[in-house]
C-alpha cells in the first residue's frame, strides 16, 4: 500500500476514529486503525472496539492499493508533527508503515490487516433518510443525563421508545436526574422501535461527533445493531440489552407551581454563586417568592454567596436545593430566552422546560441540606 495525501485531511479522518480505539483493557489490535487504499482513489480508515465500529473515507492519490493496520493514536500524533502538508504512507515488508513528509521519516509497527476484527456494517440493509438536526436535538438534549458506565444501578445509555402512536421519546437518567426529548413518530418513520432500544453512552457521543456538520443522514436497525450513514462515514453500534427501569415513577404527574426566568440570567447567577461550592458542598438553594428568585450557596470552609433575579411568579414561598452541575446542564440545553421551572413540592423532582420547545423535559431530584 502506498498513498499520497495532505496533512490536514489525514489528521481529520484519524481524529474521527480516535475515541473508538481508546477502550482500555482491550486487545492490542483494537488500538489500531485499519487503513485500506482502494483502486478508486480513496483511503478507508476503520476502527472497532467490538461494540462500536466506524469506517470513514477520504480521497487520496493511491499509488499502490493495499491495506494494513497501525496504532491510531501514534499515527495521528506523528501526522500532526509533520513539517509539510504533503504526506506519503507506504507499507513495508518488515511489518512497518513508512510515514514521510519532506525529510522527516517515521516507521511505525503494524499488524497484518487479516488479523483485524470483523465489523458488522450491514451494507446491504435498507437505510432511511432523516434530518440530522432532529437527531442532534434528540441526543444533544439528553446526553447529559446518561450515567457513567461504572454506575451499577443505572443503564448507561439513551432509551428510545414510543409514547402512544404519535411520539418517540429519547430518555436518559442516572437516578438523580432525568432528561428526555420527544419528537413526532413520523419524523423518524422507518425505524421500528416498538419495544424500545438503548443506545450506549459512547455510541451517543460518536453519533453527535459524526453528524455535527451534516444536514441529512441515514439510519437503520439490524440484529441488535444501530446503523448510521453519512456521505463518507458508516457507524455501527451494538445496542444494550439491559432492561430500562420505569423512569416515569419519578416524574410528578401534577406540577401546580411554576415560574419563568431569563435563561442567560439564571445560568450566569448559578455560575456566580457556584464559585463558593466544592465537591463537599456542591449545591445551590433556590428560594422562590412573589416576583423574586433568591439563589444561595454555602460552604462552611470558605463562606457563602447569594444573588437575586426577577421572575414571573405569584404564589406561596418555596425553597429547594439542587446539585449545581445538574442545574447548569439542564439549563444549558434550553434554547429559548426563558426557562420554566415546575414543581409539586420540595420532596419531588423539579422539572425544567423550554417554553418554546415542549418536547424537552429536564428533571432534577432535590438535595437534603
Primary descriptors:
DNA Polymerase III, Chain A, domain 2, 16% helix, eight-stranded antiparallel beta sheet, 25 strands, 6 helices, alpha+beta, 369 residues, 3 domains, 13-stranded antiparallel beta sheet
Describe this structure in words.
- With 369 residues, this protein is of the alpha+beta class.
- It has six helices and 25 strands.
- The protein has three domains: 2-115, DNA Polymerase III, Chain A, domain 2 (Roll); 128-247, Roll (DNA Polymerase III, Chain A, domain 2); 251-364, DNA Polymerase III, subunit A, domain 2 (DNA Polymerase III, Chain A, domain 2).
- 16% of the residues lie in helices and 43% in strands.
- Strand 7 and strand 8 (96-101) form a beta hairpin.
- Helix 1 runs antiparallel to helix 2 (72-81) and helix 5 packs antiparallel against helix 6.
- The chain is elongated, with a radius of gyration of 25 Å.
- The relative contact order is 0.11.
Amino acid at each position: 500500500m502506498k498513498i499520497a495525501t495532505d496533512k490536514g485531511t489525514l489528521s481529520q479522518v484519524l481524529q474521527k476514529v480516535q475515541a473508538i480505539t481508546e477502550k482500555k483493557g482491550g486487545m492490542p489490535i483494537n488500538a489500531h486503525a485499519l487503513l485500506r487504499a482502494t483502486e478508486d482513489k480513496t483511503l478507508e480508515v476503520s476502527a472497532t472496539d467490538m461494540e462500536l465500529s466506524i469506517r470513514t473515507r477520504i480521497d487520496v492519490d493511491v499509488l499502490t492499493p493495499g491495506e494494513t493496520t497501525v496504532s491510531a493514536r501514534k499515527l495521528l500524533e506523528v501526522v500532526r508533527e509533520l513539517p509539510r502538508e504533503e504526506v506519503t504512507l507506504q507499507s513495508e515488508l518488515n511489518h512497518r508503515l513508512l510515514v514521510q513528509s519532506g525529510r522527516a521519516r517515521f516507521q511505525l509497527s503494524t499488524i497484518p490487516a487479516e488479523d483485524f476484527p470483523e465489523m458488522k456494517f450491514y451494507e446491504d440493509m435498507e437505510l432511511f433518510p432523516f434530518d440530522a438536526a432532529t437527531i442532534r436535538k434528540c441526543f444533544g438534549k439528553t446526553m447529559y443525563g446518561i450515567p457513567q458506565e461504572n454506575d451499577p444501578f443505572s443503564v448507561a445509555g439513551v432509551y428510545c421508545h414510543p409514547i402512544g402512536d404519535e411520539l418517540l421519546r429519547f430518555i436518559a437518567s442516572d437516578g438523580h436526574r432525568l432528561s428526555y426529548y420527544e419528537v413526532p413518530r413520523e419524523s423518524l418513520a422507518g425505524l421500528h422501535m416498538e419495544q424500545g432500544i438503548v443506545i450506549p453512552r459512547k455510541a451517543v457521543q460518536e453519533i453527535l461527533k459524526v453528524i455535527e456538520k451534516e444536514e441529512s443522514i441515514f439510519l437503520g436497525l439490524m440484529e441488535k445493531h444501530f446503523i448510521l450513514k453519512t456521505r463518507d462515514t458508516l457507524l455501527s453500534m451494538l445496542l444494550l440489552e439491559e432492561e430500562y427501569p420505569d423512569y416515569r415513577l419519578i416524574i410528578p404527574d401534577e406540577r401546580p407551581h411554576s415560574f419563568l426566568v431569563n435563561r442567560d440570567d439564571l445560568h450566569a447567577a448559578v455560575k456566580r454563586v457556584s464559585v463558593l461550592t466544592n465537591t463537599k458542598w456542591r449545591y445551590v438553594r433556590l428560594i422562590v417568592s412573589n416576583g423574586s428568585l433568591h439563589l444561595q450557596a454555602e460552604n462552611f470552609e470558605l463562606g457563602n454567596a447569594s444573588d437575586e433575579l426577577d421572575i414571573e411568579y405569584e404564589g406561596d414561598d418555596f425553597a429547594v436545593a439542587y446539585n449545581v452541575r445538574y442545574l447548569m446542564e439542564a439549563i444549558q440545553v434550553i434554547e429559548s430566552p426563558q426557562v420554566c421551572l415546575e414543581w409539586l413540592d420540595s420532596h419531588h423532582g423539579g422539572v425544567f422546560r423550554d417554553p418554546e420547545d415542549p418536547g424537552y423535559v429536564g428533571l432534577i431530584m432535590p438535595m437534603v441540606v
